[in-house]
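Could you help me review a protein record that somebody else here produced? Do not assume that whoever made the record got everything right. The record follows directly below this note.
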Amino acid sequence: MLAAILVMAAACHRATVPTSTPVINTEIKNQNGQTILAGHASLSMMQAPAYKPWFDESYNNYGVDKASTEQLKPLLQNKRMEIFLGSWCGDSKREVPHMIKLLQDAGMDTAKLSLIFVNNSLSSYKQSPQHEEQGKFIHHVPTFIVYDGKKEMGRIIESPIVSLEKDLLAILQEQSYQPNYKAIEFWRNNISSRSKQMSDEVLQNLVSQFKPLCRHYGEFNTYGYVLMAAKNYEEAINVFKLNTMIYPETAGVFDSLGEAYATIGNNVEAKLAYEKVLALKPGDTNAVKWLEKLK
């Protein structure tokens, strides 16, 4: 069954159309008052004072696999790449300069890369102002999407499975390649079309399928917030509830479920979720604050 799912995922990926929005190099303030990049930006922005220190450090400290980049040179011809990233994101700060360096070593014109910076504010989580992420299933960053013309060949999500060079080779050579976050991909291909709220019984029956695919509770937690920002509330609650069943001893998953219920105005269920947080983590200040609000 998993093999069939991977084939379906690949077929979905190949239908994606790359972005064509203009380079805007926009800086905004997120909900914490931090200055971040948002939307389609040029690589030259990485030399602006706010980003140059972390970009240059990661770039200069990366040792490119020269043997692999020699193999990549002919395969990268006439290919393009979109990179969805966050200037606030530690994984992006590490992996994106590495990718830029190896692509340059492999002879690719990185000035033609599409760099799409997304927000980390809850109301626009993993979104850009021009919404280049729409229809592209962006849930963790960085996400590197490789195109042949208008067709997606594959993507590396957040971090490589083996190495950036080896993973990129596998994609370009059209080998079997599965990026990180298998559980989210499984949900997307098999469950997400059920937009209505799912019963506890139905969700509980899914636990045995999803638990082996999940790396940690943060996987579905992050995806739930992506759905919330997109105002897909029913699916978000399904995801958060399933996460509480996969990780019933983790306070954080009940905290997120409580926030989702409070957002849609279901204070009864929100209160139950935050009471569960306190049962697992007595004295949790966020749960105490929310329960006081919900009174």
